[in-house]
Amino acid sequence: MTNTARALFGACAVVALSTAAVTAETITVATVNNGDMIRMQSLMGEFNAQHPDIEVKWVTLEENELRQRVTTDIATKGGQFDVMTIGTYEVPIWGKQGWLVSLNDMPAEWDADDLLPAIKGGLTVDGELYAAPFYGESSMVMYRTDLMEKAGLSMPEAPTWDDIKAAAAAMTDKEAGIYGICLRGKAGWGENMAFLTAMANSYGAQWFDMDWNPTFDGPEWKAALTDYLDLMTNYGPPGASSNGFNENLALFQQGKCGMWIDATVAASFVTGDDSTVAEHVGFALAPDNGLGKRGNWLWAWSLAIPAGTQKEAAAKTFVEWATSKEYTALVASKEGWANVPPGTRTSLYENPEYQKVPFAAMTLQSINSADPQNPTVNPAPYTGVQFAAIPEFQAIGTAVGQQFSAALAGSMTADEALQAAQDLTAREMRKAGYN
Amino acid sequence: MARAVTPQRKATVTVLAWVVGLVIFFPILWTVLLSFKTEADAIGTPWHVLASSWTTEAYATVQQRSDYLHHFWNSVILSLGSTVIGLIIGIPSAWAMAFVPGKRTKDVLMWMLSTKMMPATGVLVPIYLIGIKTGLLDTRTGLVIVLTLINLPIIIWMLYTYFKEIPGEILEAARMDGASLWNEIRYVLTPMAIPGIASTLLLNVILSWNEAFWTLRLTTTNAAPLTAFIASYSSPEGLFFAKLSAASTLAIAPILILGWFSQKQLVRGLTFGAVK
User: Fold this and answer.
1) DSSP code per residue over A3-27
2) Radius of gyration (Cα) for chain B, nearest Å?
3) Structural domain contains residue B16
């Protein structure tokens, strides 16, 4: 062998070895754009320090875009993503389809038993855990303590809808630009229908009876919708039919709402630096009607691994890190306890440091009072609190939401909206072959 | 005889044009204004937005969180690539249809236009499956092909309209002088149709730049253009108006500047025929 050949071999060997040493496995994570997820992206340096062999690439999208994007990919087995951020609605449907990798074999130190039972129940199908919750939320009443005091009222910890009506009437001062109650009105299955479905549960209403017939023609839905419309017409802000989470958040932060019933995650925003009323916010459970169900929803953004990914091991390592107790501690050490992703683990709520966060106890109580397996007063054939976990629900929920939003805008009556909802839901369910 | 233009009439038209222009431009202006505010100020009343202090905080955050240049280059490659390939296919096609029409030319033109009437969602799954099989998902090549196919009907229709206005006799004269087909297109047709070709090019660059259905659904990270960059700042739960505005401003700025410099050409191409 000549010297040149020897040198060439040597060089090749060195290059091959060094390539092997730096080759990292790349996983692609699809995620929604919310504060907790963005914070995780900024903490990736910590993950890389522990796992230099795994490189994480992010695809961040608005949640409806993300839903369409990952649904297309998973339904066609496109393999573009190794970890997907999906909601409580998708997990049971996709799990049943066999589209997700079971997480039952996560290591013992990850401690699956520590997950909040309500959240874990929503992510489990036939005993298999199909997603690891990253952040969980319910809904609750956020109210202005100063306005309640001025009105001479006090908010019970577990109010009824009558308490809410009385408080809304007492706090409303339209001339001063203060509206007793702000609720979602924008049409969409994850917008006004999330609120209204949860509210309807507390009135004893439900989407479908045990034979999958819609029940919008029953007295329960009528009572719920009528009360919602009365509250919003008499005590709500103008133009409420186009208000979603962000619009109501802005109104509340500017001191224009007496009460706001919405996601528990809003608590950190209304008490944060951007809020002009941060000092005067109280929290209460979502209202009920004494029927045993409260009007609060349950949602978790969770990390799931699509079946068929080539990088299952690396994906599991990442999911384990992102949803572990250590990750919570990491966020707390960098950004404080108020900023850790809430609503997933029992141990977080047992932590004395976290108990000092003003909305921690109410968030936990709200989550625990929701039961996705038995969401309604009477038996229902579906799971899910503010949705029915069937593939047809997105389209039907949004179409029904449009009717109710139109009723709020005043372009149809409550009866007309309920009739239209009944007809369109019955038609779609028939077409889908449920009855 | 041209109608005399009185000063009053001129003033009215000028004011009206400015009002219409401002109304159309206002959303963009407001987006730019919001991008220089903090998140808290950005959700305030319009007066508050104008009165509060200015900051480049949102731009700094966007720069830190996203790789703008990566998305920018993808947008440039996708919009220029798809338009240039579209023109290479479109010019000969439009020539054939304008100057040597067959019995079914009108039908072919209508058929091409009809493909634009189909909702894109209808072909999402087939195209996605083709993308998987060919390995072209999340590649610039794959997206350039898709965008070219989407814009081709518009390119051919626009060019066809311009070419139709060029008298066939001029091309005949060139043929009589012994020009080959290539020379006829290259030296006679193209120079006469330059305004039309230029406006077709510009319009298609803008359409491809703004295309958000396919560019979001067929990409993950490698080929994601500026539409994906904007989409990553939109959120239904949480206030990101200032950051979203900053991302939008960064995304539309290049195409806005391009439009500004080329508006004379664009207006001429869209309003006048090929032959003056």
Assistant:
1) HHHHHHHHHHHHHHHHHHHH--EEE
2) 23
3) no
Q: How many CB atoms lie within 10 A of CB B207?
A: 17
Residue B190 structure tokens: 């193209």
- Give the residue from chain B lying closest to A70, CA to CA: B217
The alpha-carbon gap from B232 to the nearest alpha carbon of chain A, in Å, equals: 4
B32: in domain: no
In eight-state DSSP terms, residue B99 is: H
Which residues in chain A are contacts of B240 at CB distance < 8 A?
33
The closest of B185, B159, B158 to B170, measured between CA atoms, is B185
pLDDT tens figures, A255-264: 999 999 999 9
- Sequence-ordered list of residues with C-beta below 8 angstroms from that of A394, at least 6 positions apart, any chain: A89, A189
Return all residues near B250 (Cβ < 8 A) that are at least 6 apart: B59, B62, B68, B226, B229
Which domains are seen in chain A, by residue range?
Answer: 3-136+298-355 (3.40.190.10), 138-297+377-431 (3.40.190.10)
pLDDT in tens, A231-286: 999 999 999 999 999 889 989 998 999 999 999 989 988 988 888 999 999 999 99
Say if the Cβ atoms of B40 and A244 lie within 8 Å: no
Q: Is A243 on the interface with B (CB under 8 A)?
A: no
- A351 CB near a chain B CB, below 8 Å? no
Among A97, A118, A122, smallest CA distance to A345 is for: A118
Place of tokens 């045990």: A210
Q: Does A60 touch chain B (CB under 8 A)?
A: yes
Alpha-carbon span B253 to B248, nearest angstrom: 8
Q: Which domain holds residue B238?
A: 64-271
Rounded (10°) angle between helices A219-235 and A393-409? 50
CATH number where B91 lies? 1.10.3720.10
A205's torsion region: left (phi>0), alpha (psi -120 to 50) or beta?
beta
**Chain B contact set for A301 (CB, 8 A):** none
Of A59, A72, A190, the CB nearest to B124: A72
Q: Please state, in angstroms and rounded to a whole number, the distance separating the CA atoms of residues B202 and B196.
A: 10
Closest CA of chain B from A285, distance in Å: 20
Element (H, E) at A263: strand A257-263
Smallest Cβ–Cβ distance between A76 and the set B43, B128, B239 belongs to B128
CA dihedral angle for residue B171, residue B173, residue B174, residue B179, rounded to 10 degrees? 110
Cα–Cα distance between B2 and A181 in angstroms, integer?
63
A174-217 pLDDT per residue, tens: 999 999 999 999 999 999 999 999 999 999 999 999 999 999 99
CB contact under 8 A, A78 and B137: yes
3-state class (DSSP) for residue A30: strand
Indicate the pLDDT class of residue A20, thresholds 50, 70 and 90.
very low
Which tens digits make up the pLDDT trace of B149-203? 999 999 999 999 989 888 888 888 988 998 888 888 888 888 888 888 988 999 9
> Per the CB < 8 Å rule, is B43 touching A30?
no
Q: How far apart are CA A340 and CA A206, in angstroms?
A: 34
